[in-house]
Each structure stands twice: as C-alpha cells, then as structure tokens.
C-alpha cells in the first residue's frame, strides 16, 4: 500500500495519532507525479469567470481557452458573456514575432461585437515567455474603447492556483473605487468567494436580505462590473472559500477600510455560524438583526431536519473521504459528514497551508489520513485501505472512486447541484445517501469479490480469463 | 475553398483542442504506456479533466510540473526527475512524452534530454525493465489535437518499429475513433482471419471494467512488441482521407519498410465501409464473412425503411476533419443534404476530401470550411437553416438556439452518457448512427405535432 507514496511526498501525508502533527505543504508539485492541481491561469480564470457582463479573453494558444469553455456552473441572472470562450489562438508566427498586435485587434473586434462592460485579458505560459506587454496593449485599448481593459498576469508556470487568485484579485481591485456609492446603506455586504455554482449565491443573498442587509456586489458569482466598481462602499466583506478572494479583502481593507470576515456556507453548523457572525457584526447598527437571524436559522432547520435524520439512519457509521481544492471547504465537509453520522477517514486538499492541515488534524478522528497535493495512486490506495463508502471531490477524482466501486459526490467547481446553505446541506445529504445506498456496489469486485464474479461467469459459460 | 474569408483575428468557442491532448490520447492506446507532458502542471490537469469527462475513466497524465525557474533555465532537470518517477512508481512499459507550448517555446531539446537520461540512469533503466521512451513535438500553435494524435502514432512507429522478418500481420491505424469502434474493428479483422496490430488501441485502456485494485497503468493497448514488428507487416491500412502520407505512420511504414499501404476514408456509412471491407477481402483473400454481409444487407434494408423520414433534411456537420468527411459521406448516401461541413483545424485537404465522397451524387455542394470556430459556424449555418446538427457536444448551444436535434458523435461528448461507447464505423456503426438520426427526426416531428400520433 505504502508503495503508492513517492518518497519525496512523505512529508505531505499525515496520519492522525501516529505521530505528532507535522506537515510539509506549499511545495511545487513533484515532476512525474500526477498532481490533481491546476495552474496560475486556472486560478485567475476561476475567480474572474463569473463576472458575467465582462469579456474574458485568453491570450495564448488554443488549449488553455478550449479547456475552460463554460466548464463551470456559474450562473448569471442576466448577461452571460462569461460562458463564451475567447482566445487569441496564437500561431507559430505570433510566437516568433510577438502577439501584441493580434491581441489588440482581437480586443477591438470582440469589444465591438459584444459591447462588454469591461474586459479581462489573461496571459498564459507562452505569453510570459515571448514577453508580450499586456499592460500596454490593455491601456491602449481601454483608451480607445472607453471601457476598463484589465491585464491578468496569470502565466501558468508562475506558481500554483493561489498565485492566480492573487492576480485575479488585483484585476478586480483596480475596478473598484470608480462607482457611485451614495445609495449604499451602512447595513450592507459584499459577497466574496462564492461562484454561484448551480445558483448558490441566490440562496445566500436571500439569507442576507432576510436578515435586513443590502447586498452591494456578488463579486465572484453572478457578478457585474458596475457592482464591483462601487463595492468599496459596502459595510462588510463576507469572504468564503479558503484563499481565492482573501487577497481582495485585504486590499479593500487597506485602501478603503472595509472590514471583512471569513465564512463558510457548507453544512449546518458553519452556515448558521456564518450568519450569526455577520449579524453580530451589525448588532450595534441594528439591534434586532440577531433575532431576525435566529428566526431565519430556526425556520430553515425546522424545515430540513426531518429529512436529514432520515438519511442519517442509513448512513450512520459509513466512511467518507474528502479531497477538494481548498482546505477551508474541507473543514465544513468534515462537520457536514458528522451531522449525517458518517466518519471521515481521509481528508486532503490541493493547496492547504500548514495551519489549515493542523486544524484539520484537530477536528478529525484518530487514524484519519490528511494529505496535501495528492495524486491518483495515493488516493486510490487510501480509498482501498480505508474501505471508503463515499469520496467527495471533483471531476478528476470521480473515475478513481468509480473504478474502485466507491460512491462519489462532486463538490467542485463543476457541480450542477446547489450544496450551499441549509437547502444545500439537504441536497448534499440526499446525494450522499443516494450514492452510498445504491444497490450497484454489491456487484463491484471490491465488494463481491473478484473470484466469485469469475466463478459465476464460469458457471454461465462465460470466459473467465 | 474559402478558408475563413475575413482576416483572422480571434477565436470564439474553438472547434478544436490542443496538440498534446491528441498525443496523450494516442499514447493511452499503447500497452503499459503512461502519457507524459513536458510542460507546466496546468496543461496536464486540464487535459485530464477534459478526457475524463468524455470517457468517464481514469486518465493519468504525468507532467514535468515546470515552474518559473525552469521556464527560464530550461526544463531538463524536471523532465529527467519526472521520467524517473514515472518509471519507478507507475512501472511504465512505455513513457510517451509530448511537449507543450511552453517547452517548445523555451526550446527544450527533448530527444537530447532523454538520451542524456538514458546515459545517466542506465542502471535504473535496467532495473525497471528498460521502458521504452517515445517523444513527440506538439506545440499547439501549429496544429490541433488531431495533428498531435497522428504525430504521436507516427512517432511511436518511427521510434519503435524495426526492419524484421516479414510476417502475415497487418497494421491498422484507425485514427481517433471510439473504444467501441476499436472493439468492432477487432471483431471484423478476426472474422477475416487477419491478425492485426491496431495502433492505438484504446478499447480497454479508456473503457475498462470495474476493478478492486486501481491499475496504475490500465490493461490493454497495443503491445509494444507488435509495434516493433510492424516493419515486417504484410500490409498497412490507414483511415483518414485528409491525411497526407508524409504525416502518418502508414506512410512511414511504406516509405521505410516497403509495407504496402491502403489509405482509406474513415469507414463511416455504407460506401466508405464497403471500401474497407473490400480491402480486407483483398488482404485476406477471403470473401466477406456472412455475418458482415448480413449486417450490410440489413443496413440497406433500413435505409429503405427510413428514407422518407430523412429525405431532403439539411445537416450541419462539424468536428475533426476525417470524422466530418465520413459523416458527410454517410449523410449524402441516405438522402440528407450536408449544407455546412466545418472543422477547426486546417488540414489543407479537407475540401477535396469532401468533394471526393460527394462526387457520385448529383447534389449541391455544401459550404466547406476549415479553421472554423463555433462563432463562425453559427454565422454560416444560421443562413442555411439546418434541420439537424451532427457532431460533438460542443454544438449543443446552437442546437438549442435553433431548436433542432443534435446527433452526438465523435469527441467530446460530455452532456450525454456513454459517448465513448458510440459506434461510428463499419456497417454496424452506420446502422447505429442511422437509427439515431431517424429517431431524432421522428421525435422532433412528434414534439412539434399538435396530434399525438403513435404510429409515425
Ligand atoms: S499551453 Fe499549449 S499545451 Fe498547454 S493547454 Fe495551452 S494550448 Fe495546450
Ligand atoms: S499553458 Fe500554462 S496557462 Fe495554459 S493551461 Fe498550461 S499551465 Fe496553464
């Protein structure tokens, strides 16, 4: 089993209880290991993509744009320009002579064609090498067209996804401070780090509105350029998701004094606590807000608990594994599984910090495997070792689980089922329940035993090799 | 042919993928192979995700995971480290290394680095059964995923095949078809008594059974030994009308080893399949086996039964060049008018290939375009008022906009189940596509009819 682990990676795996907590992380992925990680460009694209009335132009060869064409479920209540995939599709000539002219022409053409409110230009690996001056081109085009045209320095090789988050935050930040804030109440928030996958941000917005808060900008989900321009006028930044928009919150705090707080919308405890935290923040301005929030939480819980308990009866004692992009989400998932009676035996992320993993180690049970930047060999070995009933991850993890006859729940950027909020917790439990209790597992070799299957095939005259 | 009349500016919703993706798919079809991308991490991750969404199978692609300093000082050290790790952990029988835009641009000499690696690590290589290492240059700024696919197949043959004793085996280079297609082709060859080496063979590696152990390298694929012996093959068959021999494995075998080459269109539809079967008759010296003759007969019978449902309907066909040529040929022979044939890559032989398959019919020629993206396809097609689209999932938004059916074929299919089990080739493939087309049109008719006809 342990042969699945590269020697170089041993420090990135911790088994709780076996030794005192110690974890190496924030390392570059190991060459030759099939990391589940993406690149800087991916990080930027993820964060900026849901700004629906902006043009997102990928400056590079075709693949980088083709693979990110509308792959996520970030929905818009209006314009949907973000769902198109624009690329300068660099050719050999451009690589030799530089792609600046092509970029400029592409921008002018696309801006005229689609009339966006702003344009983001992403640089990819190759652009970093050939040295196109994105900034200069963007400046020229911005002047000519009158809309903000923002370079996103997201060359893929310049770090991992997190560097991409940072580049995206810088680009968004440069939009701020240019809109009119006179109509904004002090009782107001910006929502950061929610991507409106499967319409989740609409659930969260509704909670805030029921609490009596004005939502100024959904910066990263169902986003609009005009909202972002005036987002600095909001009373509080509510930041979800480990790393993606924390940088932006810091920048806004420094420049405009906007306070921020970290939240999570997954699970019952974290969802409720997030709302209470926001309510407590505004308590001085609005003494009744906490009562309204409590009423909201109670109402939601009353509605969801009976269904959750039904699932819990079937799921009690089953085992879950978690491997997600950010560690913050993993915390919430550990708690969410506890509510439905399941034991988490493996938890890992692509980009957690040492602090994140320490916290994970604190909230998990003895024997739980904690892992940073894992790969299919390790993950499959862990799933087998722990005889897991369900694996929570993204599309790249799905076939690992399914091949081994393990249930699966997609909790990544491509999910099409809302998993946030109280209603999301019920959806999550329903999905986990549906997968774990499916009759199909009794037929998979892991459970049925290969020998028995082959014997049956023999009996029926099938060819058993 | 008007190749994209307007001066080229930008691409909106590309109708192609990048070159190394094709190479990874091709390498996946070799026994014991681990595809390896020499570049930064993102490319490999994106391609894995993309391929997984279609095949719903594990697809491990190793990467050199280059960072900033490698981009400046060269990726050699990471490439070597990566090869070593893939050897020791995956116990690969073959490592298929494709370059990416990044490593092409910084000018890494991959064959040179591999040669160095072999010198430096000869002990380790021996210890691990001396895996083969095949390299291929796949900068995406010159070509699409299909160029990458064929380049990897050719590189594998070039770097592995040897002049050996002549034998009765036949090499078949089917191009990028589905696992179901490959399984069917094997059956056909078997029935003709032909022992064939199909390269690549993704029938098991990208469509495997449920397991209780995660296979580091999925079983199946073309055995390396067989690729080595292709130099002595009796004949080679290669699918793809748009391919010129100087870019293909078949061309190479003919040129370097005098293996007689049969270049055919991808056998989609009746006539292209007929060509394929008659080549098999010729090579084997046997008449078409009864079961395939019957399948052919039933196919024609169904063409007759269904012809009124499809007569005169107008289709837009898009995707990989050779797939489009095959589909166009098929649609024309059942009485559907291809009105637009589009592909994202620029092959140079697309138009003449379409003309060739339409030659015997007295029909108006479709608009034929290469280097297209979906924005341009939409612009062209809108005026042509298609009744159906035939192609991969990527045309869904157009089908939805125009409220016409989309017959899903090719790659990628990520909004339907079982895309990789779609059968395209041979009489059986034609039958299955024909049934889908007819049923889609019947369904549309039912939906739009004010009367709920049950006999239709
Ligand atoms: S950089 Fe090149 S190889 Fe990598 S994804 Fe982009 S187009 Fe493909
Ligand atoms: S080329 Fe660079 S930016 Fe594009 S996908 Fe690959 S790593 Fe990411």
Question: Quick summary of this structure?
Answer:
The complex is a heterodimer of chains A (465) and B (456). Chain A has 465 residues and is α/β, with parallel strands linked by helices. Chain A has 19 helices and 14 strands.
Structure description:
With 465 residues, chain A is α/β, with parallel strands linked by helices. Chain A is built from 19 helices and 14 strands. In chain A, the strands form 3 sheets. Chain A has a 6-stranded mixed β-sheet, sandwiched between helices. A 4-stranded parallel β-sheet of chain A has the order 3-2-4-5, with helices on both faces. In chain A, 57% of the residues are buried. Helices cover 46% and strands 13% of the residues of chain B. Chains A and B meet through α1, α2, β3, α3 and α4 of A and β1, α1, α2, β3 and α3 of B. The complex binds iron/sulfur cluster (2 copies).
Properties at a glance:
heterodimer; A: 465 residues; alpha/beta; 6-stranded mixed β-sheet; 4-stranded parallel β-sheet; 19 helices; 14 strands; 44% helix; 14% strand; disordered C terminus; B: 456 residues; 5-stranded parallel β-sheet; globular; disordered N terminus; binds iron/sulfur cluster
- Share of β-strand residues of chain A: 5-15%
Number of DSSP-assigned strands of chain B: 14
**Biggest β-sheet: strands ordered side by side in the sheet of chain B:** 12-11-10-13-14
How much of the polypeptide of chain B forms β-strand, as a percent range? 5-15%
Q: What radius of gyration of chain A results from the CA coordinates?
A: 24 Å
Question: Could you tell me the radius of gyration of chain B in angstroms?
Answer: 22 Å
* Subunit organisation of the chains: heterodimer
Specify the helix fraction band of chain B: 40-55%
Largest sheet of chain B: 5 strands, parallel
CA distance, first residue to last residue of chain A:
25 Å
């Amino acid at each position: 089993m342990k042969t699945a682990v590269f020697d170089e990676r041993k420090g990135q795996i911790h088994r709780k209880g076996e030794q005192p907590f110690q974890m190496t992380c924030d390392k570059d992925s190991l060459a030759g290991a099939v990391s589940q990680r993406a690149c800087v460009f991916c990080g930027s694209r993820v964060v900026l993509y849901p700004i629906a009335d902006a043009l997102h132009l990928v400056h590079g060869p075709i693949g980088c744009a083709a693979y990110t064409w509308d792959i996520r479920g970030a929905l818009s209540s209006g314009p949907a320009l973000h769902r198109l995939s624009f690329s300068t599709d660099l050719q050999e000539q451009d690589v030799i002579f530089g792609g600046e002219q092509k970029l400029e022409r592409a921008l002018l053409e696309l801006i005229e064609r689609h009339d966006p409110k702003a344009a983001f230009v992403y640089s990819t690996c190759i652009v970093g090498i050939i040295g196109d001056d994105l900034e200069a081109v963007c400046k020229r085009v911005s002047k000519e067209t009158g809309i903000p045209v923002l370079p996103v320095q997201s060359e893929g090789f310049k770090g991992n996804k997190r560097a991409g988050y940072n580049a995206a935050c810088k680009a968004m930040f440069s939009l701020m401070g240019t809109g009119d804030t006179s109509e904004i109440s002090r009782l107001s928030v910006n929502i950061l780090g929610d991507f409106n996958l499967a319409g989740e941000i609409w659930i969260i917005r509704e909670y805030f509105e029921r609490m009596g808060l004005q939502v100024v900008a959904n910066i990263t989900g169902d986003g609009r350029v005009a909202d972002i321009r005036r987002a600095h006028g909001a009373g509080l930044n509510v930041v979800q998701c480990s790393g993606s928009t924390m940088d932006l919150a810091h920048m806004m705090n420094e420049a405009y004094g906007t306070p921020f707080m970290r939240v999570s919308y997954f699970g019952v405890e974290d969802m409720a606590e997030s709302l209470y935290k926001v309510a407590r923040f505004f308590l001085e301005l609005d003494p009744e807000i906490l009562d309204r929030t409590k009423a909201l939480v109670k109402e939601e819980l009353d509605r969801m608990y009976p269904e959750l308990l039904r699932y819990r009866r079937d799921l009690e004692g089953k085992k879950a594994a978690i491997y997600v992009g950010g560690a913050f989400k993993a915390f919430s998932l550990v708690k969410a599984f506890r509510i439905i009676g399941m034991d988490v035996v493996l938890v890992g992320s692509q980009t957690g910090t040492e602090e994140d993993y320490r916290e994970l180690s604190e909230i998990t049970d003895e024997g739980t495997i904690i892992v940073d930047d894992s790969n299919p060999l390790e993950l499959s070995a862990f799933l087998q070792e722990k005889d897991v009933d369900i694996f929570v991850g993204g599309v790249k993890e799905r076939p690992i689980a399914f091949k081994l006859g393990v249930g699966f729940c997609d909790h990544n950027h491509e999910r099409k089922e809302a998993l946030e909020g109280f209603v999301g917790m019920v959806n999550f439990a329903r999905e986990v329940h549906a997968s774990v209790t499916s009759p199909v597992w009794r037929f998979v070799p892991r459970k049925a035993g290969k020998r028995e299957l082959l014997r049956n095939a023999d009996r029926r005259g099938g060819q058993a090799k | 042919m008007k190749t994209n009349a307007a001066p080229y500016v930008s691409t909106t919703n590309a109708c192609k993928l990048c070159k190394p993706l094709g190479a990874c798919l091709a390498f996946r079809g070799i026994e014991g192979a681990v595809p390896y991308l020499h570049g930064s991490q993102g490319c490999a991750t994106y391609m894995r995700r993309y391929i997984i969404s279609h095949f719903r199978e594990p697809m491990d692609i190793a990467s050199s995971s280059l960072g900033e300093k490698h981009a400046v000082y060269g990726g050699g050290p990471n490439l070597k480290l990566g090869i070593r790790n893939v050897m020791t952990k995956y116990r690969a029988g073959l490592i298929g290394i494709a370059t990416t835009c990044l490593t092409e641009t910084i000018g890494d000499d991959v064959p040179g680095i591999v040669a160095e690696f072999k010198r430096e690590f000869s002990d380790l290589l021996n210890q691990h059964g001396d895996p083969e290492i095949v390299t291929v240059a796949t900068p995406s700024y010159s070509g699409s995923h299909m160029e990458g696919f064929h380049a990897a197949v050719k590189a594998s043959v070039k770097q592995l095949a040897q002049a050996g004793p002549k034998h009765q085996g036949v090499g078949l280079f089917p191009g990028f078809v589905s696992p179901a297609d490959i399984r069917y082709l094997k059956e056909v060859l078997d029935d003709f008594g032909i022992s064939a080496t199909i390269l690549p063979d993704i029938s098991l590696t990208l469509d495997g059974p449920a397991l209780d152990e995660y296979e580091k390298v999925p079983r199946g694929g073309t055995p390396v030994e067989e690729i080595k012996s292709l130099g002595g093959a009796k004949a080679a068959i290669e699918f793809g009308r748009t391919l010129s021999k100087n870019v293909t494995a078949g061309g190479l075998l003919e040129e370097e080893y005098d293996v007689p080459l049969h270049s055919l269109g991808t056998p989609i539809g009746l006539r292209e399949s007929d060509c394929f079967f008659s080549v098999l008759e010729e090579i084997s010296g046997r008449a078409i086996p009864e079961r395939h003759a019957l399948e052919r007969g039933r196919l024609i019978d169904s063409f007759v039964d269904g012809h009124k449902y499809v007569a005169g309907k107008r289709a837009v066909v898009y995707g990989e060049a050779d797939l489009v040529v095959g589909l166009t040929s098929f649609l024309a022979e059942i009485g559907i008018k291809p009105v637009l044939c589009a592909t994202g890559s620029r092959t140079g032989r697309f138009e003449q290939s379409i003309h060739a398959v339409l030659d015997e019919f007295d029909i108006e020629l479709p608009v034929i375009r290469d280097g297209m993206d979906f924005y341009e396809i939409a612009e062209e097609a809108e005026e042509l008022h298609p009744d159906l689209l035939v192609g991969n999932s990527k045309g869904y938004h157009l089908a939805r906009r125009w409220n016409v059916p989309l017959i899903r074929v090719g790659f990628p299919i990520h909004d339907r189940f079982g895309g990789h089990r779609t059968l395209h080739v041979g009489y059986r493939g034609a039958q299955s596509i024909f049934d889908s087309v007819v049923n889609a049109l019947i369904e549309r008719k039912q939906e739009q009819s004010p009367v709920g006809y049950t006999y239709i």
